[in-house]
Structure formats: structure tokens, C-alpha cells
Amino acid sequence: MDEKKMLIALKKSISRAAILFSLTALFIGIIYTFEGASIQAVVLIKLWITFLVAGILIFFRVLTDSSKWAMGKPFIVKNLIFMPLFLLVALIFAMDVSREEGQVIPDFTKLPVYAGIFLLCFTIVQIIGYFRMKAKTDLMNDALLEFRKEHKWDEEE
To answer: Are 118 and 91 a contacting pair, CB within 8 Å?
Structure first.
């Protein structure tokens, strides 16, 4: 493994996990505020552990981007490969945090709701990612066409 690729993957995974951690903490804080409850320290520790695991998954996801196998694949295929792992981590966290006081086994009737929320968020992120990648590709294609127009006289010689 190339050390430079691993360092880039580490930086990307830490920054992405930190952003997701912050957004999730904000989302949970808003939900707890509407319920009139306070966030316990244990919930924040569980959230941190969840995003530590998610950060490790993101690290391996970013590493796959630089592999020869992944170079020819669309980003959605690579994301769909890792999606079940992220879904599992998210559901474990949601089911654990949603347990009532003294409840040992989580309430599995909420599982479809949590999975639906995850899949909705995943779909939105994929759509945004698609349009970002398309915009980058279109910009690169436009620059290439402009370059060809500027240097067309070189080809004629």
C-alpha cells in the first residue's frame, strides 16, 4: 500500500466523519429538544463510537477509489457496495439510543423507520454526489474542448 494514498484516505475519512458527526449531533439535538428531553453523556459517547466505526469504513471506501478495480466503476457502484455496512452501523446506533430506560432488547418495530430514514438520506447524498461529479466532468470536457479549439492550428501542421 502506498503511504501517500493512505494518508490522503485518512485525511478524507477524518474530515467526512467529522462533518457527518456534527450534522448527526445537531439532528439528534433538535429531536431531543422537540421531545423536551436532555441528551445524556452516554448517547454522545455512543455517537462518537459510531462515527469512529463509520470513519474506518469511510477510510476503506476512499482507499477503494484509488484501486485499479474501482477506476473504471461509477461512484454509485462503489457506494452501493459499502452501503450495507453503513446501514448496519447506523441501525445499531439508532436502535441502541432509542431504547427506553431499563429496556434490554431494542424495540424492533422502529427498525423500518430508521432504515427508511437512512435510505432516504443515502439517496439524497447519492443524487447530490452525482450532480457534483457530473458538473466536474462537464467542466473538464468544456476545458478540453476549449484547449482543442485554441491549439487546432497545431494539429493542421
So the answer is: yes
47-91 pLDDT tens trace: 899 999 999 999 998 888 888 888 888 878 888 899 999 999 999
* Residue 146: CA count within 13 A, CB half-sphere: 6
Distance CA 103, CA 109 (A): 14
Residue 59: its pLDDT value, please?
Answer: 93
DSSP element (H, E) containing 88 = helix 75-97
| Category of 102 on φ-ψ map: left (φ > 0), alpha (ψ -120 to 50) or beta | left
Which helix (H) or strand (E) segment holds residue 1: the answer is none
Q: Which residue reads 482543442 in cell numbers?
A: 148
Q: Which residue has the cell 431531543?
A: 32
What residues contact 27, with CB distance under 8 A and at least 6 apart?
A: none
Q: Are 50 and 94 in contact (CB under 8 A)?
A: no
The span from the CA of 136 to the CA of 91, in Å, is 33
